[in-house]
Each structure stands twice: as structure tokens, then as C-alpha cells.
Amino acid sequence: MKAWAKRVVLFGVDGAGTFFEQTPTPNMDRIFQNGAVSRRTLTEIPTISAECWGSMLHGVDCRRHGLTNWVTGKKPYPVDSPYPSVFRVIRERCPDAELASFCDWNNVNFGIIEDGLGVYKYHAKDYDLLQPAIEYINNHDFTLMYFHFDSVDHEGHAHGYGTPEHLAMISKNDEYIGKIVEAIEKRGWLEDTMIIVEADHGGTPPDANGRGSHGGDSEAEKYVCFYAAGGGVQHAELHDMLVRDTAPAILHALGLEIPHTWNSRVPGGLFADMPENLPRPEGLPLERKEPQPKPETGRFWERFSTLKPALYLPFESFNALPEGTEQQGKLYLVDGVRGHGMRFDDGSLSAPCPAADECFSLTGWVKLNAVESRMPIMGVHCPENPASWLYVVATEEDHLVLTVRTLDAEKTRNMEIGLPPQRDGVWMFLAVSFDAESGTTGFSLNFEPFLRQQLPGKQLFLSGQYPRLFLGRDDVQGPGQQFPGVLDDVCLYRGVLSDEDMARLKAYYMD
Ligand SMILES: [Zn+2]
């Protein structure tokens, strides 16, 4: 195969979506004036960083590579995966190639690009990557160089995507790109180096709290721009491009074959020998299916009014979160049991519980993307009165733990429920019911009759104190694990739930 380019540089601008087009980018305008562009490149859904960068670098959809923000922070990508990164493919074919990755978000270096390939990995805030990267260029005739810039996404989360702050940071990133390309130009490499700028995802306009997010499938979240020039790239407008087509584009530029396991293609029109889009190959199939509850049949709140729901979180939009809700870190709206759910890889939520007196219950759908010890799923406690609380955590390999501490008890009490054999990536329905009169707590998984246990104390909270519901975070037992999963339809009730109520909930959701 013909090698069009000697080198490829891929600039990844996190959270820039298609917003490059709305702000001055004089350096990119100059670099790509005779290049190729795709302004409606579809990224992965959920539109979350690890899913999208994973697909861009591994040439497959996110269900195949299985990368999430949580996973990429926890473990290196397996070196024997059938879905290798573009770095691994180059290394296997070109043992002497010099490869480098300069990342602001170190999850790419740690969890997306495999270890042991001799890739030079550097991690710093994006503006602090420039000098070391320029030194690297001055001393190495590299084959592939990847950059991850994160500050655009930070501005998007803090102010909303498409806001002046977000756009100004894209222009700032354009300066970074200009400086790096200048160093390549000084080496006399501009002609035979393919330069790419691309985003992993976009994001939403400011919500009621003035913050932006991503994870969902709105136009502003799921479309990104892809720009390429140099190294044989033609002056062209590309069509029907997916983010995962970036990896084949890089290999094709270097004259390397595309792995048959990938389900991506070289964008038609990018190179002279590939003028049209060919059908995207199926790649190595994925064998997995997830049971899905039936679609919504009538409004939850109205259907279950007799159970006295006091707080209902269907997670359909950030704007719909109840007043007094506090967000920490980054939260994402992703596919839920119905409509959207909320993913907690990088953040948590707390909401006021309206008048949870002596009796109350809590239900919610949970999808665990991994099972580790002490992952806080949901809990209730009074921030002013840390003496009593209730928490559900996922723990060890095979069970969930509910931990309760009542006002007059010295010690905590645990209840355990076994997890089903297939637990990763499967929706499960959790229910907890606290009955102050009989002094029992009930715990149920997947609509099974409640497992009930006598508690040493009579009441959980002092009356008159307003507890808060905590999701994805455990403030009582100290900061620890993240909860790498999705919650949907979380509901807090003012009464005790019976086994009959569980059957009604099951009929509503499942049958
Ligand atoms: Zn991102």
C-alpha cells in the first residue's frame, strides 16, 4: 500500500464539538485551507470522553472497546484486545516508529493507549504540553503524535457549550495548535505530515444553573468537526463520517492496513485512492445483550400517588432537577431505563428529601458498569446530624450491602443481597424501605419480596431535621470509591413499601 504521509499529528480538543466554526481560529484556517473537512462527524453515544476518544483511537464503537471514564482511570487497556489502538497497530507493523502522546486528561495515556508499546507519554495541563512537545518534535522524527487538550471541555461544563467562555477557549487552543504546527514546519515536514484536529464530543447550552454537560444525543453533543491537511489529504468535504473512522484514516495515510476487527472505514474523498465512501465493514461482532424494561405506560407520579412519592428523579434533563439539588464534578445524561439516566463516573448529586419523617422508602434503577468494593450508589442522611444514616453500596464481587445506622445505636448494621450472575451493564431495580413503627428495614433487588431486618433503634432521623439524598457519593463514611454506573427513576416515598407495592412497580416497569 502507498504511504501518503510520513507522519500524523492528531490534535484532540475535548468538548469542542462543532463549535470551532463559531469562533476565530486563524491558525486552523491557515493549516486547513486546502484540506478536508467533515463538519457533521457523528461521535459515539453516550457522548462521553472515554467512549469517544476510545473509538477515535481504536477504530470501533464504544460497546466493543468498552471504555468509560471510570474504566480508563482504573486499568490499562488490555494489550491482547481484538480491538487494538492505532498506536498498537503501528507498533506491530513498524517496530522502530517513534510514537508520542501528550495529554491533559491522563486517562487517555493510562487507560486508552496500551502500555508496553514504547509510546512516549507525557501528561500536563494543555498549555504546559506545548514546550515539551516542541522539544520532542525537534529531537524525534515521529510517526504518530497525539494531543489531548482539556480546557475547552472545562469551560463548557462551567459555563455551557457555545458560550463566550467556551468559544474563547477554542480560540486559545487554536493558538496551541499553531505553535505545534510551526515547530513541524520549521523541521520542513509540513508537506508529508498529515495534521488532524478533531473533538470527541460537543455539549449543551447553559442549563438553569448556568452549567453545560454532555453524554446525551442532542445535535450539539453528538456532532464534531474533523479537519485534516497535509500528507496526501485532498481538498474535500467529507460525508457520513463517524469519529471511529479517524483511526483507519491515520493508518491509510501511513500506508498500513486496517485491522479486520475494526468496524470503521477510511472516509471517502480524504485520499486520492479512496474517492468514495465504501460500506463500513462489520468488524468482529460483539455478543452481548441487555434486558430492557418496557416503554413508559402512564406517568410514574400519578400511577404511584398512593405510595406518597415525595421526590422523583427521572433524570430527563438537568433543568428538571429539583430545587436545592447540588452537583459535584461532572455528571452525564445517558440512555436510561426509559429516556435518559444519569451517569456518575466523575461526579455526584445531592437533593433535599422533603419531610422524610419516621418512615420512608427509596427505589431506583441502577446499572453498574463495574463492581468493586464500597462503591456508594445512594444514601440518605442529615448533613447537620451525622449520627444516623442509611447507605446502599456495591461491594466485593457478588453482593450489594445496605448499611444503616440509627440515632441511638453505637454500631452500624448491614444487610446483604446477592447480585445476579450477569451484573455489569445490566439494569437492576433497588428498593429500600424503612419502617419506624416496627423498627425494621427492608431491602429488595429486582422486585423480589423485601428482605426485612429488625433494627436496634426505633427511628432513623430526628423529626424536624431535613435529610438529603446522596447519589454516587458517600459523605458519611468519607470519600472513597466513585460509583461508575447509571441511575434512573430514583424515587423517595413518604411511606413504607410492601411486597404488593413491589409487584405493582414490577408490573409498571416489566410485564
Ligand atoms: Zn470529552
Summarize the structure.
By secondary structure, the chain is α+β, with helices and mostly antiparallel strands. The chain has 13 helices and 21 strands. The longest helix has 23 residues, at 164-186.
Strand content: 25-35%
Could you name the ranges where pLDDT drops below 50 across 5 or more consecutive residues?
none
Decide which structural class fits the backbone.
alpha+beta
Number of continuous helical runs: 13
Give the termini separation. Answer: 56 Å
Gyration radius from CA atoms, angstroms? 25 Å
Mean pLDDT: 91
Q: Characterize the main sheet.
A: 13 strands, antiparallel
Shape from CA axes? elongated
Q: How many beta-strand runs?
A: 21
Helix content: 10-25%
Can you give a write-up of this model?
- This protein is an alpha+beta fold.
- The chain is 21% helix and 29% strand.
- It has 13 helices and 21 strands.
- It has helices spanning 26-31, 49-58, 62-65, 69-74, 86-93, 107-112, 130-139, 151-159, 164-186, 219-222, 246-253, 300-303, 499-509, and strands at 7-13, 36-42, 99-103, 120-123, 144-149, 193-199, 223-229, 236-237, 309-313, 326-335, 340-352, 360-368, 375-382, 385-395, 399-405, 413-418, 427-435, 440-445, 451-454, 468-471, 485-493.
- The strands form 2 sheets. Strands 9, 10, 11, 12, 13, 14, 15, 16, 17, 18, 19, 20 and 21 form a 13-stranded antiparallel sheet that branches. Strands 4-3-5-1-6-7-2-8 form an 8-stranded mixed sheet.
- It starts with 6 loop residues before the first strand and ends with a helix.
- The mean pLDDT is 91.
- The structure holds zinc ion.
- Zinc ion is lined by residues 14-15, 49, 153, 200-201.
- Zinc ion binds at residues 14-15, 49, 153, 200-201.
